[in-house]
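Homework help thread (please don't just give me the answer)

Our assignment gives two proteins as sequence + structure token strings and asks us to describe the second one. The first is just a warm-up. Here they are:
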Amino acid sequence: QVYLVESGGGSVQAGGSLRLSCAASGRALTRDVMGWFRQAPGKEREFVVAISRNGINTPYPDSVKGRFTISRDNSKNTVDLQMNSLKPEDTAVYYCAAREPWKDSYDIWGQGTQVTVSS
């Protein structure tokens, strides 16, 4: 059984920063694509960014471009999301997910961590 556990969420004021971390256990996810998703209240879950085993990330959506940065440490089996210049619209539950590269969809999910940004 593979588990993903997110940490680092919390409440910050607009303009602040948070660093989310996702730790995997059960097996090494060094070959997996790791992604971050978020779900705001009353909205569908949306994809934010993903990173390949080689450290290549997908393009950031305009909503977070220049403010969010994904990174991974294969030796520690972790993936992080650095979030700077946070805005109230970034408020959401953030989820870490993993999929093996040949799969179309993410099939391993964390429980989520709440990020609340106040104005």
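The one we have to describe:
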Amino acid sequence: QVQLVESGGGLVQPGGSLRLSCAASGFTFSRYVMSWYRQAPGKERELVAAITSYGGRANYADSVKVRFTISRDNAKNTVYLQMNSLEPEDTAVYYCNAKWATIGLEYWGQGTQVTVSS
């Protein structure tokens, strides 16, 4: 059974930091590109960051470059999103995504709420 379980969300003040984790099971984690998406109320889901299967390359949305860092530990089947200098505009539900485009497989986590507010 495929599972992506996010954790680490919560309420943080502007300028603060959070580290999201996504624990994967039920599939060959190291073969998948892992991404974080987010969806704010009334907005479409957007890609925040993605990292290649063995972590050699990462890309970021312009709005989070420099502030966020995506990483993965294939030994632990876990992907992380370190979020620094958080802004109210970062408030959203953050979703973990696993994708192996070559064979057309994609999985989503249930999401974790991040709220940036004073």
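TA reply:
I won't write it for you, but here's a hint about the kind of observation we're looking for: The mean pLDDT is 96.
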